[in-house]
Write a structure and sequence with these properties.
- By secondary structure, this protein is mainly alpha-helical.
- The chain has helices spanning 8-16, 33-41, 71-82, 86-100, 102-105; strands spanning 21-23, 47-49.
- The two termini are 21 Å apart.
- The mean pLDDT is 95.
Length: 106
């Protein structure tokens, strides 16, 4: 689910249907408390991070043009929320990406 901003109930239903949940820069916003809670609960094996460039730049770049390099801020925030290292989150989300898109498009 691209640029997820829905409730935990919607996330749970989507995961039950086999969807992945992708968080954008919105998860870094101060007023995104409910979304931060969802980011803590989504199974690590179904979690993705994204930029949604050129929109929704993460804090500390909020209000500016977003770009792919800023995805690190999203990943850092999700890792912080989950109490795991950035490298563990990066390994999980990279693996999820390749499983989702079947390593080479086959």
């Amino acid at each position: 689910m691209h640029c997820f901003t829905e409730s935990q109930a919607v996330a749970d239903a989507a995961v039950a249907l086999g969807f992945h949940i992708s968080f954008s820069g919105i998860v870094t916003f101060k007023n995104a408390g409910a979304l931060k809670d969802v980011a803590r609960q989504v199974p690590l094996g179904r979690l993705l991070v994204e930029t949604d460039s050129p929109y929704l730049a993460p804090v500390p770049h909020r209000g500016k043009i977003n770009r792919p390099a800023l995805v690190r801020h999203v990943a850092e925030e999700v890792a912080r929320l989950r109490g795991i290292s950035l490298s563990d989150l990066a390994a999980a989300t990279t693996g999820n990406f390749f499983r989702l898109f079947k390593e080479g498009g086959s």
